[in-house]
Automatic annotation (TrEMBL):
InterPro entries: Ald_DH/histidinol_DH, Ald_DH_C, Ald_DH_CS_CYS, Ald_DH_CS_GLU, Ald_DH_N, Aldehyde_DH_dom, Aldehyde_DH_NAD(P). This is Aldehyde dehydrogenase. The lineage of its organism: Bacteria, Bacillati, Actinomycetota, Candidatus Geothermincolia, Candidatus Geothermincolales. The active site is at residues 212, 246. GO terms for biological process: aldehyde metabolic process. The keyword Oxidoreductase applies. Belongs to the aldehyde dehydrogenase family. GO terms for cellular component: cytoplasm. It holds the Pfam family Aldedh. Keywords: NAD, Oxidoreductase. CDD domains: ALDH_F3-13-14_CALDH-like.
Amino acid sequence: MSTMSIPELIAEQRKFFNTGATKEAGFRLDQLRRLSKALDRYEEDIYLAVFKDLHKPRFEMQVDEMALMRGELDCALANVEDWARPFDVPVRGRVLANRGLVYPEPYGVSMIMAPWNYPFLLLISPLIGSIAAGNCSVLKPSEISENSSRLMAEMIADTFDSAYIAVVEGGAEVSRELLAEKFDYIFFTGSGQVGKSVMHAAADHLTPVTLELGGKSPCIVDSKANIDNAANRIVWGKFMNAGQTCIAPDYLIVQETVKGELLLAIQKNVRMFYGENPMHSSNYARIINKRHFERLSRLLDYGNIIAGGRQDASQLYIEPTVMEEVTLDGPLMQEEIFGPILPVFTFVDLADAIADVNSRPKPLALYFFSSNLEKQMRVLKDTTSGGVTINSTLLHASTQTIPYGGVSESGMGAYQGKHSFDTFTHYKGVYAKQIAGDYRPGVPYPTVKP
């Protein structure tokens, strides 16, 4: 962690940015390689820190954080020289001899604020985009995942000069102090409530923002789905990280005729993933802290538990749980669950499921299971969400060629791969006019009178 005050740190980064060093593609490549080596060097420590914070299994960490960070790094390393290169665009009309250019340039000093649920991925992944685009960066990890935050500060300080990239640790007061400062770009991942505060603070400085928020991501299963396949992928996406994933299926809407079959298949897959008692499984994470545990525990009172439901406050453990008879106006359906609780509803006609989705704030993700291509296209056409995965869960957020982000209440802006570079880049338009031959017959000029 930097020992400078926040204003001093930002001034130091702005001074370094103004040297122009970060604008060179070679410099950016070197820094991306340094980050890659740091992840190698700290890999075992990262697994341990996240386990201490979330009891997160090593294999889960390898798949849903480390592999995704590696994918982002590989993509940036392979492409940053091309991305950063100015490119020609056609100039239309009577000025064909002149030239149009688009010049990618960094914003300057960016701030990246990350949550506790994926403490490395959600800080490092946007950082890769910021480095590739040529920015300096201030990183603010969540104080809730304290072990991960401490290790992140150590790793970044060991890898980069604080005048280029630095971690600032602390709680809400530190976040407010950071947001009072002028940044050139802010990238925030977290809750909608905090996102509003970030956007309000950014507005004071007219600072552009990306907001990666959350919401209630629906999962629709129709009668044409492969039920065993759907159950397997729903259990994987919902209960990974004990349900503490911003794009986890939040609630399930299943066609009435296959509800019983699907629920049995879900219970079978929970046993297959985590055994008869997931509390004893090394593959199942825990709730982050007591406050979140108590919030989730209260939600179990608002419906009928048909599978799971066991809990242990001393271990911050809540079993993978499936519920029905949940009221639409109750707490389970008025807030993002962000835990291992899956409410189940039914529909008769697909139009009813679509209408339910459209009656709620636009979600960060939507999942649809069906072998019917026409129905797939109908769901894509008739609903709005940040992203969609068809016949699986989470996967749209794991591919560098697909933009990942929210819409409306679930966020604004997107990243992953080239989209991360674009997010942290200002595309400057350049018109290069020829020097000779300024006047051409037929090209009107304003009449100048003395």
